[in-house]
# Entry
Amino acid sequence: MKRLVLFIITTLTFWSANAQLFKGIEHLNQYEPLISEMDAALKSNPVRFSEIYKELRSLHHSKNDETLGTALDVYQGSFMYFQNNLDSAAYYFDRALEQSSKIGQDQIYRTAKIRRIFTDEYKKTKYQMAQEMRAVYIDSYNKRDTINLIYSLNGLGIFYGDMDSVSFALSSFYEALRLADLSANMNEKGFIHNNLGLVKYDLGAKDSAFSDFQQCLKIGIDQDNAMLQAIARQNIGLYYSSIDSNDLAKEQYLLVNKMGQEFGYTLYILSSITNLASLEMTMGNAAASDSLSTLALKIAKEGKVLFTVPTIYYGKAFYKMKSRDFQDALIMLDSAYAYTQYAQFSEVMPPYYHLKFRIYEEMGDHKKALEVYKQKVELSDSLDAIGNEKLLAELQFRYDDEKKERIRSVEQNKLKLQVKQGEVELAQFQQNVLIVVSILSAIIFISLILYFRLKQKSDNLFSHTIANKLEEERARIARDLHDGLGQSMIVLKNKFNNLEIENDKDVMHLNDNFSEVIEEVRSISRSLIPPELKRLGLEKAIQNMMDEIEKSSNYIITAEIDCLKKMNFEETQSIRIYRIIQELCTNSLKHSGASSIKLEALEIENMLELIYQDNGKGLDMDKWKAASNSVGFKSIEQRLKFLKGTAKVDKVKSGFKINIKIPINS
# Structure
């Protein structure tokens, strides 16, 4: 079920055709508003699209209007692409390329070329496709074709992201955003914000991605663009689901469903129901999920959105298997197989064999399970062979990238030298510890009192040295991030500044864009899970966070959390406890006007009790809960729900105090 959600979102966002596909071609203005309505129905209402397409095709034949006919070929190719019929899509794009070249419609030619590149998605490597897209970008730049500049940069951002070339992907998207601003193409700006957010989401920078999804939603509302609003709300729902805010996620999906019902957009209705089914399955409501999947199946078939049908059947087969209704589960798989011709083979066949193997295994039919498993392995080997060919070409791209930026290797050598020096210092430290321990062992026989005094002194020295080493390690990681990708971007920026470009205004804009990309990379690195949490444990991670707050502000911080050292929390639990305390600290810093913060951790009757308080202006808990934008409180509630914990806000004369209780693992 989860794969279908992501697939629908990706399909909605690959191309940003929304009534601006051929903006600037005056000849096509006579066919408004039919073209605008067909454009809006392209990704959302296949039946309505086909009706308008036939009407415009009749006008093309009756008027012998080759410009209109060529534009319709691009639309029909796009429609076939969204139906996952790549061969037919390529045919229409090739026809549009040939005809637009004959009649001298360069803008249509470049638009058709951009879309033709996407149809080779499963035939060429991302490196080859990126090279072709860059050629269109250069041609669009030379011809001052702004709309296709934006489209080609969007395509480059997608391809670079797929190749894990994050810096190039971000550069492409930010340059596309700049052009969209300059040309007042707000709809395109919204789509690019959404694609940028998806790249950040895949990197794990979910908060930064959430900001881009919100930008997309704001533009969609301002422009009265239903498609932008639906896409943004789908991805905002995905974000809420990832932080266990299931109620907020459900609210977004229901809004998308309402929009689909209001405007008659089949794909919006289908994607929202599918997302709700996935959410119900995640929450353990299997029966509700199956019911929603049945409704989605009906909508997909009636709306002829057939490429989604196999995955919906997989969800139903999984539910039947869990209910131990194995025969019905196999029937669901047979139904899914009948529709695989409408979907991408490499996407739908691996889960088909995997589910079939699981069902036979659950049935205890080990002979058939073995037969299916062999088919699964053969398919995997076949797909791996294709993937290896693509990987070789993409490795070539990365090699070329490294040749262009030789300075990286110099920085890496410096880092290696620093690591070696750190290892030598660590060995010396360990040797010193052994000496101290030996001395303590000898002294213990002389005097018990002296032994405890020396032991305490040694422990203090040990703790102090460990703390220093932790600071050094954090500094090394910071340098790694700064001198690695960040330094490469700075070098690239300096190279750009050394170029001779006549237009000072463009130079200024691009220079600002480089600075934005550099800051965004740094922001992403700060958004990731703190490395101290896994490396040093929960107690040290929290202590480090509060130390950093004290260092970077005028706050007086008190943390009494030693009991956390011996508590056995799983990694996911530790992360949620860490994030709860982080959210409380952030609230104090932003809103309380306090001068001090105190955190105390106690172990009482197999419970962890966290007492957090500040001396600020206090907090009206009812208003905080009722606030429409209270994501902070809702995220705390959801995390406590996962931890099976409780929170109680104490009424105090001044400031804010909250008591949190969490069960300790046995």
Remarks:
- The chain has 27 helices and five strands.
- The radius of gyration is 29 Å.
- Residues 1-19, 386-395, 459-472 have pLDDT under 50 and may be disordered.
